[in-house]
């Protein structure tokens, strides 16, 4: 069928709602990448098989048997506890579901409406039956992720049923393109890809260009280690992002758009293709959308995994079939972007905010977040924290609230040490900054950047020098090599950091590190290069004593740096079994059976095999 006007859209919404309401029970199986990796596809197939058996009973029995729908949703948030499942209308949230649990779920919950309590999330031994009972979920404010985990991720009908494409109908039916830009500008929406540039300002700059061929491009590259926010939106609710892109195209007069997705997101690519095909079939994408005369065609480009292609000019170069490398600016992308034409370039999360802003107004959007950074921000919460996963909170939320109230605190009650924000190009925030608001301006003042939204929580067992080395190793490998400051500067910085963690550093290295960091930050060609030294700058500033210990005392207090560790055997615990000696690849362990063994640290290669193979905790590490 084709939807040609707002009335058609409302009629389709009613039809789909009525169809959904015929289900006595709906089984929502999380089919985001995380849960699929944990085996959720087997659970989906098993639940579908069991529930089809229910629906296949004779007509005489049908009146007493539920009509069950089993659907694949996007990410339900609690990634570490997957596979996840929700059951409607009871609103039960199950965690760690296994295929062998499916029969009991069908018998107790689907047929009788009773919970399988052992599958509930436990908050300090208290069972949490519903999503709203779980602090990780209940303390979020979901706008971008509003539908993720609640609708069929592969059905445009279900998106329409929850109000999808109403914003597009409003924009095309009762707003001029300038009015759309004015509303987005008034909302204060800033680009969620990291830079925080006002979206409305960018759109207006494209709209006023003399060149009439314009493009709308979505950055779905998301190359930060540990970041999966944009991927989760593309997997769980691709229609919202596509609707936002279509509104942007109308606002700036573009007829073609491109979604640039990293190759490591095959599920995102699959669901984007499905979403585009369904939208075209309904007349919500393509030619003469909603009978408005507006044309917009979407294309998908898969990136090759280059981190630098997250930078705007490198991304557009990659779409054109060229090597992804930044170029000198001006001209900027809004003037000469894709194929030298004016281009709107925003990331997935930015576009996904647009439909709600058009539908509910800029004033509503500004009631959330801070004055300078309205709205919400999605974060991937990972590291040494009890509850890892996908979250969305108002801008200005503190790290303390995110880590302790939403994330449940650090694992095993360990002490908090820091959090890396903004990925490899971000900075490290420490205990003193736990109560600082997270928004674009406040984070920048703390020598860090918001980035796309990765939060890696670190506890007292983390070596901050090694953290800096790890991220510098990443950015150095991902440097496109075009400009000397980034290509050579990051390499020299990495060499210094490697010397320090190997116990070969000198105090003069710290001054050289700072000098190189400032040079790269001030002279690199693109934004990624300029932010590459931030992990080093922030850790040097806040954990300089750890750097000095590595150099002066040859000590790593976290006992992480291999070259600075010494393995010893406690004679009181050693029973003389000889297992450590048998597994030592360097032959550094000697002794007699039934007598305590000894490690020769002049021969030891610090591999840790002895500690891993000791069943009596006799082997310990001394920094």
From TrEMBL:
<dbReference type="InterPro" id="IPR011538">
    <property type="entry name" value="Nuo51_FMN-bd"/>
</dbReference>
<comment type="similarity">
    <text>Belongs to the complex I 51 kDa subunit family.</text>
</comment>
<feature type="domain" description="4Fe-4S ferredoxin-type">
    <location>
        <begin position="565"/>
        <end position="594"/>
    </location>
</feature>
<dbReference type="InterPro" id="IPR001949">
    <property type="entry name" value="NADH-UbQ_OxRdtase_51kDa_CS"/>
</dbReference>
<dbReference type="InterPro" id="IPR017900">
    <property type="entry name" value="4Fe4S_Fe_S_CS"/>
</dbReference>
<dbReference type="InterPro" id="IPR037225">
    <property type="entry name" value="Nuo51_FMN-bd_sf"/>
</dbReference>
<keyword id="KW-0479">Metal-binding</keyword>
<feature type="domain" description="4Fe-4S ferredoxin-type">
    <location>
        <begin position="595"/>
        <end position="623"/>
    </location>
</feature>
<dbReference type="InterPro" id="IPR037207">
    <property type="entry name" value="Nuop51_4Fe4S-bd_sf"/>
</dbReference>
<protein>
    <submittedName>
        <fullName>NADH-quinone oxidoreductase subunit NuoF</fullName>
    </submittedName>
</protein>
<dbReference type="InterPro" id="IPR019575">
    <property type="entry name" value="Nuop51_4Fe4S-bd"/>
</dbReference>
<keyword id="KW-0411">Iron-sulfur</keyword>
<dbReference type="Pfam" id="PF00037">
    <property type="entry name" value="Fer4"/>
</dbReference>
<keyword id="KW-0004">4Fe-4S</keyword>
<dbReference type="Pfam" id="PF10589">
    <property type="entry name" value="NADH_4Fe-4S"/>
</dbReference>
<dbReference type="Pfam" id="PF01257">
    <property type="entry name" value="2Fe-2S_thioredx"/>
</dbReference>
<dbReference type="InterPro" id="IPR017896">
    <property type="entry name" value="4Fe4S_Fe-S-bd"/>
</dbReference>
<keyword id="KW-0408">Iron</keyword>
<dbReference type="InterPro" id="IPR036249">
    <property type="entry name" value="Thioredoxin-like_sf"/>
</dbReference>
<dbReference type="Pfam" id="PF01512">
    <property type="entry name" value="Complex1_51K"/>
</dbReference>
